[in-house]
Design brief:
About 30% of the residues lie in helices and about 30% in strands. It is an alpha/beta fold and about 200 residues long. It has a five-stranded mixed beta sheet, covered by helices on one side. Strands 1-4-3 form a three-stranded mixed beta sheet, with no helix packed on it. Strand 3 and strand 4 form a beta hairpin. Helix 2 (about 80-100) crosses helix 3 (about 165-190). The radius of gyration is 22 Å and the shape is elongated.
């Protein structure tokens, strides 16, 4: 019996040390694609940092767990503030859709005088591993001249998968959802004033 005590103590010490070792932190970005070149004749747009609910305005990735519970993933974080990530994705997609190199999401520095200023008010981003993401965004385009344009984009993107691949697929679904929001906005910009 005396022989086993040191072995049991060593095993318990190893188990406690393994449990205390934190998971390595993984950083994510929504901006996985290069910005388009685009032309100079299309409208210029300044995309402001998105307004987010307090629950989402944090460095950790927030996931839905069901039954009204959320998971704040300490080891899975955004590479930069999520409000900037969202604005950058929408700016990049708007530039592509409008064939404009003058769509920007500045996060500080020099002022950008644009034809439009885009405000994004994110109501929710409900992301669930193995299921997908639901996004609800109010947006408002304030033109330098003329009446503001506003709208709301509510949509869902599926993302199946399990284990580590589930995170990659969920990230891709969030990108697709934000690009669809940009598509809604671009459609309004492209409409003749009489049809708005």
């Amino acid at each position: 019996m005396m022989r086993f005590r040191p072995l049991v103590a060593a095993l318990l010490t190893a188990l406690v040390a393994a449990c205390a070792t934190p998971l390595p932190t993984v950083y994510y970005t929504l901006n996985g694609e290069p910005m388009p070149g685009g032309g100079q004749a299309s409208p210029s747009i300044e995309v402001l940092p998105a307004a987010l609910p307090e629950l989402l305005d944090r460095p950790q990735w927030v996931l839905q767990a069901g039954n009204g519970q959320v998971l704040i993933k300490e080891s899975r974080r955004w590479a930069e503030p999520l409000r900037n990530e969202i604005s950058s994705v929408i700016a990049g997609e708007l530039g592509r859709l409008l064939d404009s190199s003058r769509v920007m999401a500045p996060t500080g520095g020099a002022e950008f005088h644009a034809d439009y200023r885009l405000r994004l008010d994110v109501q929710r981003i409900d992301a669930m591993l193995g299921k997908g993401v639901a996004i609800d965004v109010f947006w408002r385009l304030d033109p330098a001249k003329g009446k503001p344009l506003s709208g709301r984009s509510q949509l869902h993107e599926a993302a199946e998968g399990a284990g580590e691949t589930a995170y990659d697929r969920l990230l891709a679904a969030e990108r697709r959802a934000l690009k669809r929001v940009a598509g809604d906005i671009a459609a309004q910009i492209g409409q003749p004033a009489a049809q708005r």
